[in-house]
Amino acid sequence: MLSILYAFCSYGADLSLGRIPFLIFSLFVSIMYLILYRRDRLFCFETIFLFLFVLTSYFNEIIINNLLDTSTVLAAYFNASFSDHIENKGILVNTIALVAFLLAATRVNENKHYIQSNDSFIINRDLSLNVSILSVVVGLYVLYLGYSGYISSWFRYTDSASNYSNSKLVNLSAFLLVLTALEFSQLSSENCSSFKDFLKKVNKVYLAEMLLVSGLLLISGNRNECLLILFPMIICYYIFIKPFNNKQFIVFLLAGITVMIVIGLTRNSGSLDSIESINLYDMTRDFCFVDNNTKYLIEYADDGGMIGFKNAFIALFSSIPYLGGLVVGAFGLTNTIRTTEITTQGMQLLDNMDSGLGTSLIGDLYCTGGFLFTLLFMYFLGWLIASLDRQFTFEKKYNIWALIIYLFMFSNVVYYIRAEWTMPFRYIGFSFTILFVLLLFQPHKKSI
Q: Quick one: pLDDT at residue 45?
């Protein structure tokens, strides 16, 4: 089957393909999936991911072609040109990757060996001590970041000091991710089932830390970083406290999109004047280069520039403090060039950092292991997301480790489509390390 798809992709790249039929097909299969499996609860990973996948894959058809005045669009966007072969191959790789994701998710959702449970989660652990310990650690770490001047660097968004690939943000995000998972697990075990109960029973130190950190990140213009911290709390509230219906989700979604757009337009200038002549491109420019990046990386890999899996091993090892350095030193591993660097340097986009650069998930996958690896990873991603969703939404089976994975993947859904596929390793791995240490202080199981 894989060989057939590979042959189809290679052969189809030399045909005369139009993008509109593939756009229609991608929209159709995405909408059908949501109607069949998510119509009663649109608040899920797939709703956001599928929308952004189609948007980024067909940005030109959806956004650029609908602008009356393209003078506002970065010239660098139009400077990127590709042969018909690469254009066609980009369409096929994106489409087949989307189908692989949906096939895996559909297979999980059509599994008849599970039934929906109306019962609450069974959490036979008292996590209050863990929450208290980690709340103190997070509070001290936030004070350290404030005293060292790191938090003030968030408000210098265009400066190099606001580069969030550093370990400080990874540490802070992982601390708060684990703290959120523990706190809401504890609330669920205390039969917290309403917003009123939540305000009454939630750890007030935890709540203050969450509001402080996410608020500072949001007003300083660091939207993705804010989502990584705030979104897990929203997801946990939906899972453990009280789910919200589709109408509430749509209202929250539209409000969130509006806030994100306004922040994106004003974070550099600090003025609302930039939103007076807003258009479709301004609202979506963070994702404008994903399709071009994908095609560039496909071309790069086909020309013999495949980077392989060395970067993945380094990213995996770096998830555990100090282990990455020891392994790299012991085995002589060196970090090869990242696809983010390949695209920004090769496409000469270094001076346009407000254009939504970075890389693309599909392009990074292809540049790492080619078409077959891209297909296998997207199938695995669809299976993973659907399985975790089923576990926490239908089966009500509690597992703190699986919860950490689900929370991070869901909270990063907005930007994962334009990230390297190895990006979750460090965050999830470090979160696991924190959780492992904390559970050493866990009291004995209480009787249920």
A: 95
